[in-house]
Design a protein that fits this description.
Distance between the termini: 7 Å
Oligomer: single chain
Helix content: 10-25%
Order of helices and strands: EHEHEEHHEEE
CATH superfamily: P-loop containing nucleotide triphosphate hydrolases
Strand order of the largest sheet: 1-7-6-2-5-4-3
Radius of gyration: 14 Å
Number of strands: 7
Shape: globular
CATH class: Alpha Beta
Number of domains: 1
Number of helices: 4
Largest sheet: 7 strands, mixed
CATH architecture: 3-Layer(aba) Sandwich
């Protein structure tokens, strides 16, 4: 596991942007962290690293799934916060993974069968703007 320190949203996005360089079609990124930890800021960085305008990225809390095209791969940004495990199971996430894009999932603990080979990203607040970001492949 690699661990990075972020001192701002910009730093958090930069760490996501760097990870995006190593991602390939059908990769899954599972994002864990408290509310306000910076998961969406991290996904903005992923988007930018894939060649997608990060300003298009917003939290999919109410829409559940946001799809961003225009980069080297499509980015699917999923937020499972408001769902129970049985509700997640009928979303068809396994099918989405095979679409050839990158699937970034916030609140993956609600998913009873997450992808086996996912990249696990844990964001933990260590101060007002400070974050510790762990990435495990």
């Amino acid at each position: 596991m690699s661990v990075a320190t972020s001192r701002s949203e910009t730093d958090t996005a930069s760490i996501g942007r760097a990870l995006a360089q190593d991602l390939r079609a059908n990769d899954v990124v599972l994002l864990t962290g408290d509310l306000g930890a910076g998961k969406t800021a991290f996904v903005k960085g992923l988007a930018e690293g894939l060649g997608i305008d990060p300003l298009e990225v917003s939290s999919p809390t109410f829409t559940l799934i946001q799809e961003y095209r225009g980069g080297r791969l499509t980015l699917y940004h999923i937020d499972l916060y408001r769902l129970s495990a049985p509700e997640v199971d009928v979303l068809g996430l396994d099918d989405l993974i095979s679409e050839g894009g990158i699937v970034a999932v916030e609140w993956p603990d609600r998913w009873s069968r997450p992808a086996d080979e996912a990249v696990h990203v844990t964001i933990r607040a260590t101060g007002d703007a400070m974050r510790e970001i762990g990435i495990e492949r």
